[in-house]
Each structure stands twice: as C-alpha cells, then as structure tokens.
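Lecture 7 notes: from sequence to structure.

We start with a single chain of 90 residues. Read the sequence below before looking at the structure.
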Amino acid sequence: MNIAVAGTGYVGLSLAVLLSQHNNVTAVDIIQEKVNKINNFESPIEDEYIEKYLQEAKSGERLLNLSATTDGAAAYKNAEYVIIAAPTNY
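Now the structure, written as tokens:
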C-alpha cells in the first residue's frame, strides 16, 4: 500500500515510521533539511523511538519503506491514503 504523510513533526513522523514497516510511505514536508535527514534515516526531531527505528533502518537491522520529499503533488498522486499531520498549536 502507498501512503503519503503530510507533515513530519512528532505525529506525522511517528505515523510515517510505524506505517513504513509494512507499507510504502512517503513523508512530505516543506523544509528540505528535514526531508534530507529522513532520507538518510536521521531524525529531524528528538524522539526516542523515532530515532531508534531510523537508526536500525540505517544499519540494516530494520526494514523501513520510507522516503521523504518536498513534492507533495507527486506523493499524493501515487498514494492510496493521505494522512495530514498539521500543527495543532495555533
């Protein structure tokens, strides 16, 4: 299954990492630096489990079908599901 996750904060990145264990997940963010980190299996945020899972994926201990992009249109076009994880502290 192809899933796109819009937003790579705590909620979006948590969902993307967990879902990518059994699905193809594309994380979408507007910040290129965050996208680059995710594509290198480095967490752009401090979270024990996200950091652990990404490190395990980087070392080959865990398979994550996870990629990140700033091109939302392409990610959403190929997705069967889109999860929107927008900031909630407005």
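The radius of gyration is 12 Å. Keep this in mind for problem set 3.
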